[in-house]
Design a protein that fits this description.
Order of helices and strands of chain A: HH
Strand content of chain B: 15-25%
Radius of gyration of chain B: 20 Å
Structural class of chain B: alpha/beta
Largest interface: A-B, 21 and 23 residues
Structural class of chain A: mainly alpha
Mean pLDDT of chain B: 95
Low-confidence stretches of chain B: none
Mean pLDDT of chain A: 80
Radius of gyration of chain A: 15 Å
Largest sheet of chain B: 11 strands, mixed
Strand order of the largest sheet of chain B: 1-3-2-6-8-7-14-15-11-9-10
Number of helices of chain B: 16
Distance between the termini of chain B: 17 Å
Oligomer: heterodimer
Helix content of chain A: 40-55%
Distance between the termini of chain A: 19 Å
Strand content of chain A: under 5%
Number of strands of chain A: 0
Shape of chain A: elongated
Helix content of chain B: 25-40%
Number of helices of chain A: 2
Shape of chain B: globular
Chain lengths: ~60, ~450
């Protein structure tokens, strides 16, 4: 399986985002991105993500 | 300057519109250098409009209680022929070709636009001290923030440099400065007031609404903004306190409050209870996730709007604004969708919290106005970022779209205003205003504006 361009694992996403910001000469973004990563982890852990997929879709459906 | 009184003077021909607008422009001339509330003053245009409205009156045409009322417009909103700077160098050279929808409606009701008010750059902050046109100063304490992002609007009302203003509110930007400056600010139900001609911060969360010296003023402006008939608030429609019930969402919302804000809020609740309001605790189970949901909606939506200028003119943004805009580019689409789902959950939870009560009651701002440039405050032994704590009590209702108002309810020992927030059912904004009118008379406030330092010396 091919790695996505932007990793969805929060730690890997943060590392990629910080590296990209540094490449773009925006190292000040590191602290902001770290804060955002905490918020993203909390969002993904929210219990509403455990609910059923919307009607007509299944968890196996991918982009169509 | 309260709109109802000015309207009575105009309707009773005690003062001409031209005199009222002229006096307002004089006050702006004298005070604006001190508080920096206005970016652009539309003196000639306002006087021309005032003369036209006086001619209408002489000809027997009276448009209603907003006829000739001098108001300001946050400089994020288009006024034909004037620049919309958004307090940013990025917008240099802009000139609005037409009025925003909300401005057209206010003009149709007879309002006179006297100027464009200062704000936090692109409405992307809560303190109005990051502006290409300099920081707004709080009229109550000039070393302190006026709140934001509609800080210039709130400061102008408190200083009587206009009778009312049009603000925008994406996470609290009407209610926060209203609380910080001791004026009234209403965020209507999501979508009620048109946002065309308004520079967006977040298409999902942006609201446009009125700010005024009192609830009756906000009532008049709100009805003009939604293109409803504009009539002076009829006291017979204001409910008795003993007929009202309030829900206090203690968990999360009252967990992190400045001691004096807490004491003022509890004092107001106690007095309302004494006067017959039924007060009970309610809960919004996922309230602690409101800021998380908010971030994952607002960040990418803001970045989307600014994408082209972030590429072509990044150095024209204030550095901190640019960084926040850049951050939105890293939010994954799947997390944006999770946040949209969270928004539905939170909206249902606020709906349920309102079951059996007329409004939710909580402070509008967890701290008194912070010092200009202050990055963090200590509350209950914890150092917390000013921006996060200022948004803490308001942003949920941008996520859910419920109408919410901030009205002054007291002052701290340092005479800094404290705002009471009332939140009502979606599409029942008028009911929130009526409830606020019932509450307004019960607060232990000095006479309107009398806490301003230069007034105390008069």
């Amino acid at each position: 399986m091919t790695e996505p361009v932007v990793p969805r694992d929060v730690a890997a996403w943060l590392a990629a985002a910080v590296a990209d910001a540094e490449r773009r000469k925006l190292p000040e973004m590191k602290a902001l991105l770290e804060n955002l990563s905490h918020a993203t982890a909390a969002l993904r852990a929210a219990d509403w993500n455990e609910g059923p997929a919307p009607a007509g879709r299944t968890s196996g459906d991918v982009a169509n | 300057m309260n709109i109802t009184d000015v309207a009575a003077e105009i309707a009773g021909r005690k003062k001409s519109v031209t005199r009222i607008v002229h006096d307002t422009l004089d006050r702006i001339e004298r005070a604006n250098a001190r508080i920096n509330a206005y970016i652009t003053v539309l003196g000639e245009e306002a006087l021309a409009d005032a003369r036209r409205l006086d001619e209408e009156l002489a000809g027997g045409t009276y448009r209603g209680p907003l006829h000739g009322i001098p108001i300001s417009v946050k400089d994020l909103i288009d006024v034909q022929g004037a620049p919309t700077t958004a307090a940013s160098r990025v917008r240099s050279g802009h000139l609005a070709g037409r009025d925003a929808g909300v401005v057209s409606r206010l003009r149709a009701a007879g309002a006179v636009i006297v100027g464009k008010t200062n704000l936090h750059e692109f409405a992307y902050g809560t303190t109005s001290d990051e502006s290409a046109y300099g920081a707004v100063r709080n009229p109550v304490a000039p070393d302190r923030s006026a709140g934001g992002s509609s800080g210039g609007s709130a400061a102008a009302i408190a200083e009587e440099l206009c009778a009312g203003s049009v603000g925008t509110d994406t996470g609290g930007s009407i209610r926060i400065p209203s609380a910080a400056c001791g004026v009234v600010g209403l965020k209507p139900t999501l979508g009620e007031v048109p946002t065309d001609g308004v520079v967006p911060l977040s298409q999902t969360l942006d609201h446009v609404g009125p700010m005024a010296a009192d609830v009756a003023g906000a009532w008049l402006l709100y009805h003009a903004m939604v293109a409803a008939p504009v009539a002076v608030l009829d006291g017979r429609r204001v409910p008795s306190l003993s007929s009202l019930s309030f829900g206090v969402p203690r968990r999360y919302f009252l967990d992190l409050l400045d001691d004096e804000v807490r004491a003022t809020f509890e004092d107001v609740m106690g007095r309302l209870r004494d006067r017959g309001v039924a007060v009970r605790d309610v809960d919004v189970p996922h309230a602690a996730l409101a800021s998380t949901v908010y971030l994952h909606l607002q960040l990418p939506e803001s970045s989307c709007y600014h994408a082209a200028s972030l590429e072509s003119r990044p150095d024209l943004y204030a550095p901190s604004i640019r960084l926040r805009l850049e951050m939105g580019r890293y939010v994954l689409a799947e997390d944006y969708v999770r946040a949209l789902r969270g928004r539905e959950i939170l909206r249902d939870e606020v709906d349920r919290a309102l079951n059996g009560v007329d409004v939710l009651a909580l402070p509008a701002l967890a701290i008194p106005a912070p010092l200009l440039g202050q990055g963090a405050v200590t509350i209950e032994g914890r150092d917390v970022p000013v921006r996060a704590v200022m948004l803490r009590l308001t942003q949920l209702f941008n996520v859910t779209g419920h109408p919410a108002i901030s009205l002054p309810c007291g002052v701290t020992s340092g005479r800094l205003p404290v705002g009471l927030q009332l939140v009502g059912r979606r599409d029942a904004t008028s009911d929130v205003l009526l409830t606020a009118a019932a509450v307004e008379g019960t607060s232990r406030l000095p006479a309107s504006g009398s806490w301003l330092p230069h007034r105390r010396q008069e």
